[in-house]
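Translate structure to sequence.
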């Protein structure tokens, strides 16, 4: 029988990742406002792609107990190993068509992005990537591996999965509260929704985004107690 992920205790703290960081100062702003993780994109096709030397500076600036996540899209294993040798990475996020065996070879915790569309069997994908720490549910768009700035139909996300869910895709300060209340993810992941321009974060949008998540948690927990 398939075992679906269901915490044995109330999950009141939704983890927050600010992705697409390209400057140390933006990482520090994210952390100062309460972000749990920052994301570094190592995909040349992204406007938020960051060179290894700059990424190393960003990672070095991050204080203890904040997770540094490296994002790759169908990258060669040799290049991933090179990046890992230069940058202090805590977790890897795979955003392409990487099989589970490939994802698990780098001696780091990892998560797998799934681009959600109608008819997709998310539960089966969780079985396939059972070695992951979680699955990131993102929007599907032909030819684009992520970072579309568009939401998907959150009703497609199952109520329970065997892996924790990171919700991404078109989140911003105006809709993340609804996302937290409706999907109840373990974490949310935002990039373009807190930017002034691609790769350049907006401090006020980051503050508003994180405040909206925390307010939604309180409302969600109050509603759960009333039930």
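Result:
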């Amino acid at each position: 029988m398939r075992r679906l992920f269901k915490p044995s205790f109330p999950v009141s703290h939704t983890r927050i990742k600010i992705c697409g960081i390209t400057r140390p100062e933006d990482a520090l702003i994210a952390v100062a406002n309460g972000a749990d993780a920052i994301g570094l994109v190592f995909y040349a096709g992204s406007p938020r792609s960051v060179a290894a030397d700059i990424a190393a500076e960003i990672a070095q600036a991050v204080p203890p107990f904040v997770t540094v996540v490296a994002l790759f899209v169908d990258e060669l294993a040799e290049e991933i190993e090179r990046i890992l040798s230069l940058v202090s990475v805590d977790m890897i996020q795979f955003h392409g068509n990487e099989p589970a065996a490939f994802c698990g070879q780098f001696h780091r915790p990892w998560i797998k992005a799934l681009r959600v569309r109608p008819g997709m069997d998310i539960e089966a994908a969780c079985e396939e990537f059972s070695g992951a720490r979680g699955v990131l549910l993102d929007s599907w768009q032909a030819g684009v591996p992520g970072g579309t700035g568009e939401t998907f139909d959150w009703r497609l996300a199952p109520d329970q999965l065997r892996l924790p869910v990171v919700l991404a895709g078109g989140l911003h300060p105006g809709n993340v509260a609804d996302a937290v209340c409706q999907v109840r993810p373990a974490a949310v992941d935002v990039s373009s929704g807190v930017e002034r321009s691609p790769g350049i974060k907006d401090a006020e949008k980051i503050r508003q985004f994180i405040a909206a998540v925390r307010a939604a948690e309180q409302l969600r927990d109050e509603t759960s107690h009333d039930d």
